[in-house]
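Cross-posting from the modeling subforum.

Setting up a comparison between two proteins and wanted a second pair of eyes on the formatting. Protein 1 (sequence, then structure tokens):
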Amino acid sequence: MKNLQQLEEQEERSILTAPLQRRSFLQFAGAGMAGAALLAAGCTKDRGIVAPPSTGATLDFKDDFGVLNYAYALEQLEAAFYIQVASAPPAAFTQAEKAYFQDIQFHEIAHREFFKKALGSAAIGSLEVNFSSINFSDKASVLGAAKAFEDLGVAAYNGAGVRIKDVNYLLLAGKIVSVEARHAAYIRDLISAGSFANLNELTGSGASVSGALDASLTPDKVLPIAATFIKTKINVINL
């Protein structure tokens, strides 16, 4: 059986060549992000070599690259999760659910690669994930984790957008968060038809806005939640 790293490498090679069916709006959103990744790769400027931190990964929020690395870290986490689910989905998944999760996998890989290419030499390294709390053979466990990741991702983008100064980066981040919001809506509909975003389930603090579809969380709230699933130490400065 292939390990997660081998599966990830295989998906990276096939992301732009895999024959995906036109099942839903998710397909078109994912393809758009893949195109954005290629565009960013062609436009990235050389910002010089950034010395890696002595331990872990450092998010320096002094400029846009810190925010982009923050998004890159979260996209690494999501991509790793969906790669693992798509490689061996729960037996209780329907064929349609397997197909949708494979689609989302490609979207998250595209998002991850977009930030990696946009950041160039300023990108943080690959993060080591910790999914020990997730039972990947159990449908309810997988759907619960997917909901947590997508809700957290949407809230993270909404909370970090104000920190982005370059309008081009802001526009692309806005496109990505719209895709993440569609993922969140789909996952929540699988769990409970017609349900809405609710940050109480993430924070237990009543942080959600009554009647709203989306909400926002600042990085200092997002990172401790994400840390549950990340082994790599995340250092934060200039937040």
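Protein 2 (same layout):
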Amino acid sequence: MLPVCDHYCGVEARMVKSLQLQASSIEQHGVCAFDVTLDCEDGAPVGAEVEHANLVVALANQAQSASKLLASVRRVGARVHPVDHPSFAADVQTIVGQAGGALRYLMIPKVESRDDVDIAVAAVNQAGGHALPLHVLIESPGAVEQAFAIASHPRVQSVSFGLMDFVSAHGGAIPSQAMTVGRGEDAALDQFHHPLVVRAKLAIASACHAFGKVPSHCVVTEFKDTALLGRAARMAYQAFGYTRMWSIHPDQIPVIVAALSPTADEVVQAGAIMVAARDKEWGPVSVDGKLHDRASFRYFWQVLERAHQAGMEMPTQMQPYFDRTSNELL
């Protein structure tokens, strides 16, 4: 289970601030509620790719050398250039070769096929990152058609949807409002309603769930409108099956975490059901007039896992199962 929010930053000051924000959150909650992805694609100034990759190495290693608690819990990744970009090989060799031990994943953008994933895996392995998971970004109509093949790759841990490039790839056949979250009449062809965009999102989410991977939803560019962002995040999660979402501004992080995490009432309900199931030795139980069996036990256990990942307060009788020092967890 990955954190529900993946925060992207590519400017040095913002990368430093994001890592500090992550450290503060971990110290407060004891868990890593959001990832920080240090961006070498959109974040790197053209012509200064080498310098930027070295900056990412320094920041990732510095983050890893923090306290033992932070080092064991925090999650930092990096996005490199696409596999067909002139800087791809150098990115991977520098970042994975010099900071692979500080990274939890590597993001590969503009993946078009399973062959692209194989190219990325070969480069990462050559740099010494044999155990490093890959997150990939699908951004074109052709890549959407390959979503199941891409998601089935054993090194792929998460698949993201690149909305902006996907819309642009249609040569004007999809209107610009499909890159937005609309209101009222403007919502008819926004990113949650345009048929081609909806089809792409569902294909990626379905592919991920078919192979046990994490589908990650695209950014919402209206970053100052937290109400709109919250509505979009809930729609992505509840209607489209995305269990993770990109953030491009620190103010988006708590909104996304809240929207993609269970509510307090859901956590209480899940705790009650799991306690009743445990006491009945996992046989069918009735809770609040509803029958539950192992299928629903699995669902409500996942509710508790998601709540724990978000740093939410756990029901008292469930706390031992999520205590990092508890023998029951082991």
